[in-house]
Amino acid sequence: MAYTAQDYKKGQPRWCPGCGDHFFLAALHKAMAEIGVAPHDIAVISGIGCSSRLPHYMNTYGMNTIHGRAAAIATGCKVANPKLSVWQVSGDGDGLAIGGNHFIHANRRNINLNMILLNNRIYGLTKGQYSPTSPRGFVSKSSPYGTVEDPFRPAELCFGARGNFFARAVATDAPGTVEILKAAHAHKGASVCEILQNCVIFNDGTHDSVYNKEGRAKNAIYLRHGQPMVFGENNEFGLVQEGFGIKVVKIGENGITLDDILIHDAHCKDNTLQLKLALMEGPDFPIALGVIRDVEAPTYDEAVEAQIEEVKGKKPYHTFEELLLTNDTWEVK
Amino acid sequence: MSEQLIVKERDEVIVRFSGDSGDGMQLAGNIFSTVSATVGNDICTFPDYPADIRAPQGSLTGVSGFQVHIGAGRVYTPGDLCDVLVAMNAAALKTQYRYAKPDATIIIDTDSFGAADLKKAAFATEDPLAEMNIDADRVIACPITQMVKDCLAGSGMEPKSVLKCRNMFALGLVCWLFDRDLEVAFNYLREKFAKKPALAEANIKVIQAGYDYGHNTHSSATNVYRVETKDKVPGRYMDITGNKATAYGFIAAAEKAGLKLYLGSYPITPATDVLHELSKHKSLGVTTVQCEDEIAGCASAVGASYAGALAVTSTSGPGICLKSEAMNLAVIMELPLVVLDVQRGGPATGLPTKSEQTDLLQVLFGRNGESPMPVLAATSPTDCFDAAYMACKIALEHMTPVVLLTDAFVANGSGAFRLPNLAEYAAINPPYVPEELKGTWTPYQRQEENGVRYWAVPGREGFQHILGGLEKDNKTGAISTDPENHDLMTRLRQQKIDAIPVPDLEVEGDKEDAELLIVGFGGTYGHLHAAMDEMRAAGKKVALAHFKYINPLPANTAEVLRKYPKVVVAEQNAGQLAAWLRMKVDGFVPMQYNEVKGQPFEVSTLVNALAPLME
User: Fold this and answer.
1) Which chain B residue shows the shortest CA-CA distance from A69?
2) Contacts with A, B 115-144, CB within 8 Å
């Protein structure tokens, strides 16, 4: 059966006008229709925060749970019922502050979850405190003189936890978002999608350099597996490796040709270069968008099922009654 | 030593094995319990081990004990004082002798009573027996270490491994003392060390040597005990610990309900054995996830419950603190969930290996908001099976999280367990949403008869819905902050729990004319029952009402509590059940007996404390 975006929609979103979550939600509906999993075979699980309201706008199964625990709850949901397509939606506070432990362990275990991280670098629902992705020195209601701590960089955390899938899109970029959501679904295992999303009220402009099409043309690079890493309004720039690092070059200058440009390898097991790409930031580097890492590895939920099947074949007891009789017993007459 | 052999016929006997925590006392005790149970004796055991994995060798803090009470008829407790004390070193004798009866037989390894050992055990003289005023005639003083070395000379085993067999020599000696069939012990070891047959045979050789030593020297000085079997319900039995029985109860309930069993857990003493046990039984489809923390253990179980499994999370008190927010999520989402709390000494890390009943008010009230939750408390190691089964049945049929309380004493203790026939257990029927409600159903639509909402498991077309931690509209299931609706939902959640049917409170003993009613809950049942028996044997009119269902309380609670002239609530906390009963039964003002020592009650202490209340 073919589905349309409408089949996944429900209710009227309550986010502020202009909030990046509206854009992301529309892209998610569209991606789900293109993926084609039936709404009743999908569970969308969030924690608490502005973005965690999202399940209420889905005509799927789902839960808007408690702060920080979405990944843990999604883990139980997927392991107990691997047939479900499970999407976990968190903001930067829900996913990386209070829920940081669950985020890293879901990645380490490689649970087959699609983990959406809506990153606006601010706490919106509690009205404007800095988050674990706010830059050092960030001024907010809870840091009136600027923060004195460094932020997490989500890709670094994901890779540090041995994550095998990391992609990034800008909320306003529907095609780019749909593309990575489909890739996340196709990837077996934990798939982290960082969505750069603007909070119009408390952190307006945080992703301005890439928030519109013109900005992305200048300041972002779309990475696609097997394609050369070129960017710029006329694809005039490219990335090359220099020593242990990456360098931006202009094609046609200093003898650089397209052949010198790095070819993106999202499937490379070694994440060294993928991490460098993920950590690039302006003004010296473009921000990497698209699927940065996509490596196949055994998934936890499949391994659990396989182990159960294997043990079923090996052990002679399969009912409670048979289990009882595996013990030393004696008869009292 | 006397050459004369006296055989004592006994209805019951208590044996305590003690030694360094690395001496294998738990294993020796377990094997002896199994051997005794196999001949049909009733058994009740209590492992008493230190919190440190390995305190300094030979030190007073490193002593580990295992007590087993074996009886011809029913035994309710592991017993107060032992008839036989095995002390593998000086520190064990020093710390454990207080658990021995005045005429107890003491077995010691003389090789562990050297000058250095005595110093570590803080003996002032070179004669520990005299120093402790122990009659040498009651002591089987045997050079166990040397005899084990001799026995295994030429076996090719490392000296360190040889020394680890000392416990088996003591076990052999005790088996001789009780005229036990060694074959059962041999089979136990062959199974336990199935992958190391050489080690199994070495242990077996040492047990035989210990037995022979007893036989050849008639070394018991005075006593050889025989405990025969009587008054047992016919059937097939096994020896089971409370934690294992709990795990079995979960497995049985899942099978009966036709659901996958999911356990989300994080290791914590003394609950971890439930995780261990369930992890073994993948051939029954049991799924266990050792999570990153207690929170995830509970949260993942909530996710599994939503996905349609029988979801369980297991922990001890400190874990409940961490799980409480996710437990509350299951309250407001009205999802089935079983939370096992194997209570230990608190607060905070407290006494991790010791037993208390101090989590009762925590599980009843320790959550934000109005958060009613059913609570059950298992009354003995074998009752853990029924209690776990019923906790699952209530959770699944009433769409609610349920707390099952056990405690370290019940969890680690064991008893003779009559193999249950699942066909005799009540069916478990979760309230799946009927197909004909498709199109009109909303998430908080309730069954009229019991106020339970329907369960729509993901995967069913046409029943997609979003649950969550925010209050929902009773009719539509959408998020609602409407004051009237919240007030209504609060009442509906409470009414649903209040309407859960639980069995009446039973009164044992002098039901009609007791002058004193003893009231307790959970794991103290055996001790309170034994105390009542003793008081009645002394001619007093006493009854016992022991709670297993704590929320909701049995319908006849007030009637029972008001019937007797004097009531004492005896519990291993500062008065938590008494507080709960005072809250729920108007005008009820009981006397209280409270101990918070981390140790099981002693029957004699109870009798001494309770009898004067009748004067």
Assistant:
1) B299
2) none
Whole-number Å distance between alpha carbons of B334 and B452: 8
- Residues in contact with B150: Cβ distance below 8 Å, sequence separation at least 6, in sequence order: none
> Nearest-CA residue of chain A relative to B252?
A320
Query: Per the CB < 8 Å rule, is A323 touching B420?
Result: no
A87, A91, B40 from A105: Cα distances, Å? 16, 17, 49
Q: Do domains B238-424 and B507-614 have the same CATH topology?
A: yes
Q: How far apart (Å, rounded) are the C-alpha atoms in residues B534 and B545?
A: 16
CATH number at residue A89: 3.40.50.970
Residues 213-232 of B with CB under 8 A from A: 229, 232
CB atoms within 10 A of CB B12: 18
- Is B100 within 8 Å of B85 (Cβ atoms)? yes
Q: List, for residues B235-293, the tens digit of each pLDDT value.
A: 888 889 999 999 999 999 999 999 999 999 999 999 999 999 999 999 999 999 999 99
Q: Which domain holds residue A124?
A: 5-206
Which of A48, A73, A317 minimises the CB distance to B283? A317
Whole-number Å distance between alpha carbons of A185 and B558: 58
Query: May I ask the CATH class of domain B507-614?
Result: alpha beta
Residues A258 and A251: beta-carbon distance below 8 Å? yes
- Model ipTM over 0.85: yes
Residue with tokens 């930031």: A281
The C-alpha atoms of residue B246 and residue B340 are separated, in whole angstroms, by 9
Return the beta strands (E) in A77-176 as ranges.
85-91, 114-119, 122-123, 129-130, 165-170
Say if domain B6-227 classifies as CATH 3.10.20.90: no
pTM of the model: 0.89
Please report which confidence band the pLDDT of residue B227 belongs to, taking 50, 70 and 90 as the band edges: low
Find the CB nearest A63 among B240, B306, B463. B306
On chain B, the residues whose CB falls within 8 A of the CB of A105 are: 291-292, 296
Q: Measured between alpha carbons, how far apart are the two ends of chain B, in Å?
A: 48
Residue B302: which of A73, A81, A314 has the nearest Cβ? A73
**Cβ(A7)–Cβ(A59) below 8 Å:** yes
Give residue for tokens 């022979």. Answer: B212
Paired residues of B42 in beta bridges: B71
Averaged pLDDT for residues A23-50: 98
Architecture of the domain defined by B238-424:
3-Layer(aba) Sandwich (3.40)
What is the rounded CA–CA span in Å between residue B492 and residue B474?
9
